[in-house]
Amino acid sequence: MFTVYGLAGRVVSGDIEQLARSDAVQSLARVRAATAVGRGAEVAGAALERVQAGGPTPFGGLPAGIRQALAQYEEPPSREQPLSQVRAVMSSPAFCLPLQMSIDDAWQALQQRGLSQAPVLGADGRPVGLLLRGELLPPSLMGSADLPNPWHWQHLLTETVQEHMLSPVPCASPQTSLRQLARLLLELHLPGLPVLDEAGAVQGFVSRSDLLKALVHEPPLDLWG
């Protein structure tokens, strides 16, 4: 189950198919498409296919992280219950930004915590958007005559979070399936989503990084259950 929140409050609730039919969600479609990770992914993919087919494990020459990940397929399966819901992988509590915070203060707060995004809360404490550090320097400014202009940066830093946040923003529930979450993140090109409790308060945040971290730990993720 997902819920979309914006400045006007709750916009729509439903499963991923219902969200796909919502104009509010479609407006979130990102211009930037996902990019390929290059030759390293091709090598790892070919190696994984050989491992799954019962062939020799070609660990030599691969980075340590890839070797470790591939080795998991040769180990006995875990007896622990696989992770299948957002509640098992989300980060909690979530760091949130107030709507009227300046971009300067928001940037500093995110940098100090090593975060690339954060939910934005309205005066009532409900989510109204999502601020992405990567969106503060849009591609349209790259190569622009305004880029080296100190006035541009001074003006940007004094603007508020509200002027640069992504809104409305889909929010997951703790019971949302990880498969549905992963699908929504890919389709909307989002790095993560706020997680709300039944009262609509932010309980946590789940990101792509949270999913990747869970993939290298036991118990395994259950994306297909």
From TrEMBL:
InterPro entries: CBS_dom, CBS_dom_sf, Diverse_CBS-Domain
Record bears the keyword Glycoprotein: no
Listed Pfam families: CBS
Keyword annotations: CBS domain
UniProt keyword Kinase, yes or no: no
Domain CBS: from-to ranges: 90-147, 165-223
Identification of the protein by name: CBS domain-containing protein
